[in-house]
Amino acid sequence: MSLHIAPSRARAQVPTATIERLPAYLHVLEHLRDAGITTVSSVDLAARSGVTSAKLRKDLSHLGSYGTRGVGYDVDFLHRSIADWLGVRQPLDVVIVGVGNLGHALAAYRGFAGGGFRIVGLIDVDPDVIGRTVACGDALITVRPLADLEFIAGRAQIGVIATPDASAQAVCDRLVAAGISLILSFAPRFLSVAPGVEVRAIDMSVELQILAFRQRQTPLSAGAVSA
Amino acid sequence: MSLHIAPSRARAQVPTATIERLPAYLHVLEHLRDAGITTVSSVDLAARSGVTSAKLRKDLSHLGSYGTRGVGYDVDFLHRSIADWLGVRQPLDVVIVGVGNLGHALAAYRGFAGGGFRIVGLIDVDPDVIGRTVACGDALITVRPLADLEFIAGRAQIGVIATPDASAQAVCDRLVAAGISLILSFAPRFLSVAPGVEVRAIDMSVELQILAFRQRQTPLSAGAVSA
DNA sequence: TAGATTGTTAATCGATTAACAATC
DNA sequence: TAGATTGTTAATCGATTAACAATC
Prior knowledge:
The structure is a homodimer of 227-residue chains.
Chain A: H1 16-34, E1 39-40, H2 42-49, H3 53-63, E2 67-68, E3 72-74, H4 75-86, E4 92-97, H5 101-108, H6 111-114, E5 117-124, E6 133-136, E7 139-145, H7 149-153, E8 158-161, H8 165-177, E9 182-185, E10 198-201, H9 204-217
Helix pairs in contact in A: 1-2, 1-4, 2-3
The structure holds a DNA duplex (24 and 24 nucleotides).
């Protein structure tokens, strides 16, 4: 990586692969903390996260030096350090477009609050759904019509697309036009967006296909236990 | 990769990264086919899939030679070839444990049938939900009690865990004990399983955190447009 | 001091990319 | 033939791993 551009914020580039694992560590650390465990070794934490200890130590070493040789990591301190580093402490506002079964499931999802996210808006087109109140963590949010999308999106940083496939691209375009640059999509279609907008797409069917194929290709497990 | 073991089924190992992209190509090809487009170039197909054309050609080259130089790929032939190769033609049976909002969303998901999956069972603990009939694609499936898990699992190859976090590991253990070796989990916790069992976990909160962080780290887009 | 465990090094492995010869 | 596009090569890049010196 050597895209020098700009006065460069020194923070030595952390590998993508590492970033994608950090939330998992965070989650395990929360479990440990809740269980009253105060210290953990890289071997233990790694096993609970489904990675090797070498990989875990390498990952953490990119963020800094948070452990004590001969002892391990302080659960609470490491958790705070990673959370700070990821920027989880400063919650991001989320708008969900499409309040069907999936939208409801997402709204009800307890993990959001803990992960530093706050649902600030729910949008749908169905007259039967518009106006209904949905419990999102502690808050009660009223479902608003599609016409209000721009207004609501203006208050959010993240847009979640949980609409049918056919409407996904249109919704995506409107979200981007309203200033959203982070989109999580559950529609089984590739969304094209302007440069600078980050899209992460989850397609259940694709996930199942990958899973099914992996098994077929490795009939005699090569270590198994995945995250 | 050189894990020689066993009489080795020659089929030259295809890279994991390639396998994970194949379902996306498949999906775009379906769109093209439905739109009546019969031929597509690697540049076009790649753009619609969110990858570079070099990567696409390299990926396809691992499966075989399905294009025509100077012309491109026949949409229908390439689709059939990839589908055959992935083994999508022979549908896999799925049991979903946990029929809350997420379970319902999964059951209603149209993409499953097209992707070569068939839902054969729904399990829940809630007396209000047990006995209810849910439309899964064409089929109507009745939600059965947790006690029936082993019976239903015996008829399935894939288990989907859509229960609350607290029950996930227990359900996972029972699925594995019942002979399931492919598990897709939506519980935000790491599941430990015996070697040979493949687990793929999707945690919405983790997905959002990765998304949010990516944006923070690349303030001036480095190409953007992701799959 | 002896035992334990981190943080880092260097070697290996796998994935991406650009370029182009082969060929329609 | 001229133009287009594949399939493959070789170079680059990034991620994983094992081993160990540093240090509690």
